[in-house]
Design brief:
The complex is a heterodimer of chains A (297) and B (513). By secondary structure, chain A is α/β, with parallel strands linked by helices. Helices cover 47% and strands 15% of the residues of chain A. Chain B starts with 48 loop residues before the first strand and ends with a strand. The chains are: A alpha/beta (297), B alpha/beta (513).
């Protein structure tokens, strides 16, 4: 099964205490940020700190770094300092073109060769934060084999759209739909934007349920408290697991009988239902919800 | 000479007539009899209410060299101790032993009187702020500060090791003949548990109140038979400092993780069943754990028998929801707890002796199944320090820590593995307050370690989906991040003595270099 990226937690790259503890909250990915959460005057200190944190601390999860945009005065310096520490992933903010992705890909390839890291070991993801970027979303996803995920960054995106965020999320519906189409077409994961009001648990839950229904693989979070809430929604229920197991059993049965017709409780089952059941089981297995599986919950 | 906790204790300690070495949590075999206050007489229609604290001091016959006591139910809102010490100083009385059940930072105000020699010895639960620094400096006091647990203090009072000449009792409500309770009046503090022992055993008892009512007051926490004199003053405390509003559940994600692990430890420990009993600490992680425990109790239909301790709002919620049948209350921390003691007949007030005295016929801690305690630092032998900080300075209080750890079937210590750049699992804690042989589980945000002697608990926790590891592995995680800390260099001067609850010497605190 592909790597789970349900919760991708942002951690300010200039906060030693948070960097030290980032690994204990069971996020699937931590994203050390040297972009928006770090003042211009602290960029150099933050990238050094992130470099040292990645080298010194054994994180039990995927470690990504959100660099400054590659065309700003900081983006290349970020990569120069951070890549030798070997993060698992680089996240580009405000992606607008495939060229930007290729530019970063080249820099990573060079760093991998220089530091004797296996080629392709450092992954990439990008965030769409402008209308222009969304128009190029598929090309951005397809620009490098390193690309594993595409995210949407709502605050900048909605400013660009000349609107603001609402509780019902209608203003983001079109963009989310388009983003997920692009991500799926390119075969990468789709990650939703942060929910900034950390004290509004109900709002967070409602939004997370909505984006899960839309097909997103996960969501960026800005506080560890959101992780548990998110996992509850992204964890298959006992009922779902049970159904999936029965679907797969019916499929196995049909295969053994060499029959093209799969039936469960007298109903015909299509192949997509089997695919969905496989996905549920893979999730449940990865989360340790089924016997004999390792826990990643 | 090494005691059973491995601490080198000098056989002569300034200020102590005898040094008995700690020899294990239940090794002491006390002999002799419980002492009592002086016999006295009260003639019919005599007046107990006096005009001022000064007049009460005179009436008690307080003299230089005597021992005075106070209780700490008013916590950081207490006015009584400072007010009385100031009045004593004005009278020119000196060389007193101050035996307060605990001291908080509001009592920094007595520092000038320590410097002037009004107070020259202190026996208490601990010290914070500037007072803690002063204790650690070794200046002014004639002998090391004697640290006792709440149960140990009750024991020392009853055994006569701590003889109180005059007890000054802040009384939230007091009638004109000396009946006291803590649940009425503007300075209501709830339980009067610590003061009960002082009132019962002191030679002279002065009630100081800001809510003097006609006789008889009911309910009675401290009876008229214990009280010699009464003084009404404008205010005995600051209500805001006495009790907070309902404490909010922690939002600190690290504390929440620790709390969740602690709740899982309880759930899988083997103790989590109908009629179990529980004590919660008042720290953030401990209170947050209450929330998770509550959810688990509801989900599994478990009803506990009793809750104990310093009582906080989460316990009140559980009592009100029928998740516990009874609460035993020695001290209240917030307004919901005080209200509950006033209104709920299943919420029972108890004395410090009933709570934790190891040498009576049955303290409630002996019936306790599970306790969650916090810690400043722990070590690989599971010893706990809650009294000195990473510079060796006194900054905390022993409280009921060692009492409940010894009494409970399962004692769980919650603490962050790292505080800033300091590891909290050491080779040796700087000061032992609770011996490791009474500590069963240490819960941190990065791992949970069970005392190897609790093989049953280790086995039970295998299914708990928590990061179970040895204490050495836990320490290594911390050391990998922080390096190994150097021990705190100290001088030969002894500034504090940590008495175990049974009266033996568990550890000493030396002045840092």
């Amino acid at each position: 099964m592909e790597k789970l990226r349900r919760a991708m937690m942002f951690v300010p790259g200039n906060n030693p205490g948070m960097l030290q503890n980032a690994g204990i909250y069971k996020a699937d990915t931590v994203i050390f940020d040297v972009e928006d959460s770090v003042l211009v005057s602290e960029k150099d200190a933050a990238r050094q700190l992130v470099h040292n944190a990645i080298k010194a601390i054994k994180y039990p999860c995927e470690v990504a770094v959100r660099i400054n945009h590659i065309t700003t005065p900081y983006g290349k310096d970020d990569l120069a300092v951070i890549l030798p520490a070997k993060p698992d992933m680089i996240r580009l903010p405000k992606a607008e073109t495939a060229e930007e992705i290729r530019m970063i890909d080249d820099i990573i390839s060079e760093a991998e060769a220089k530091n004797d890291f296996p080629h392709g070991s450092i992954k990439m993801m990008a965030a769409i934060e402008t209308a222009k970027g969304l128009m190029k979303a598929y090309e951005i996803c397809s620009a490098s084999p390193r690309m594993v995920a595409l995210a949407i960054g709502a605050e900048d995106f909605l400013a660009d759209l000349k609107t603001t965020r609402s509780s019902h999320g209608a203003e983001l519906f079109g963009a989310r739909s388009q983003l997920i189409l692009a991500a799926r077409a390119a075969g990468v994961q789709a990650i939703d934007t942060v929910f900034s009001n950390i004290n509004d648990e109900e709002g967070f839950i409602a939004e997370t349920m909505r984006i899960k229904e839309m097909g997103f693989d996960g969501k960026s979070v800005i506080n560890p408290r959101q992780i548990k809430l998110l996992y509850k929604i992204f964890t298959p229920s006992d009922k779902e697991i049970d159904l999936a197991e029965r679907v797969l059993a019916a499929y196995q049965d049909a295969k053994t009988r060499n029959s093209g017709v799969i039936a469960l409780n007298g109903k015909m089952i299509d192949v997509p239902v089997v695919t969905r059941a496989e996905r549920v089981i893979a999730y449940a297995t990865a989360l340790g919800l089924r016997k004999g599986a390792n826990s990643n919950a | 000479m090494l005691n059973k906790a491995g601490r080198d204790i000098p056989l002569v300690i300034p200020g102590l007539s005898e040094v008995k070495l700690y020899n294990g949590p239940f090794a002491a075999n006390p002999t002799g009899r419980i002492v009592g206050p002086k016999i006295t007489v009260n003639k019919p229609r005599s007046e107990k209410v006096l005009k001022s604290i000064e007049q009460a001091i005179e009436a008690t016959g307080l003299k230089s060299g005597m021992t005075i006591s106070f209780h700490h139910h008013f916590r950081n809102g207490d006015y009584v101790l400072n007010m009385v010490v100031e009045a004593i100083a004005r009278k020119g009385i000196k060389d007193l032993t101050l035996a307060a059940s605990s001291l908080t930072s509001t009592h920094d105000a007595i520092i000038p009187y320590i410097e002037q020699g009004v107070i020259t010895a202190i026996e208490t639960s601990g010290g914070r702020g500037k007072l803690g620094e002063l204790f650690t400096s070794g200046k002014f006091l004639k002998k090391p500060v004697l640290i006792r647990s709440h149960g140990g203090r009750a024991r020392a009072i009853e055994s006569g090791e701590l003889t109180i000449d005059v007890a000054f009792i802040g009384a939230p409500a007091c009638d004109t003949y000396g009946n006291i309770n803590g649940i009425e009046g503007k300075s209501a503090c709830g339980s009067m548990g610590y003061a009960m022992c002082d009132a019962a055993y002191a030679d002279q008892v002065v009630a100081i109140t800001d809510h003097l009512v006609p006789h008889p007051l009911y309910p009675i926490s401290i009876p008229q038979t214990n009280v010699d004199f009464i003084v009404a003053v404008e205010a005995i405390g600051d209500p805001k400092g006495i009790a907070s509003g309902a404490l909010r559940i922690s939002k600190d994600p690290k504390e929440l993780i620790i709390a969740e692990y602690a709740a899982s430890v309880i759930e899988y420990s083997g103790y989590f069943k109908n009629d179990y009993s529980l004590q919660l600490g008042s720290g953030g992680a401990s209170l947050a754990a209450a929330q998770f425990i509550k959810e688990k109790m509801i989900a599994q239909g478990i009803v506990g028998s009793f809750g104990v301790g310093g009582i906080t709002a989460p316990f009140i919620e559980m009592l009100d929801q029928g998740l516990f049948k009874t609460l035993f209350d020695v001290q209240d921390f917030d307004i919901p707890s005080i209200d509950s003691l006033r209104n709920n007949p299943n919420h029972l007030e108890m004395s410090a002796s009933y709570y934790a005295n190891p040498h009576n016929r049955g303290p409630i801690v002996n019936k306790l199944d599970v306790v969650i305690l916090s810690a400043t630092e722990v070590d690989i032998d599971f010893n706990v320090n809650v009294i000195t900080n990473s510079n060796g300075v006194i900054m905390g209080a022993s409280g009921g820590h060692c009492d409940t750890a010894a009494g409970a079937g399962l004692s769980i210590v919650v603490a962050p593995l790292l505080r800033g750049r300091l590891p909290m699992v050491l080779d040796r804690v700087h000061t032992i307050v609770t011996p490791g042989e009474t500590v069963d589980v240490i819960v941190t945000e990065r791992g949970v370690a069970v005392n190897p002697k609790r093989k049953d608990v280790i086995e039970n926790l295998k299914d708990a989906n928590i990061p179970l590891m040895s204490i050495e592995e836990l320490q290594q995680i911390a050391y990998d991040l922080t390096g190994k800390p150097e021990s705190i260099p100290v001088t030969d001067e002894i500034v504090g003595v940590v008495e175990y609850r049974d009266g033996t010497i568990l550890d000493i605190i030396r002045k840092p270099v």
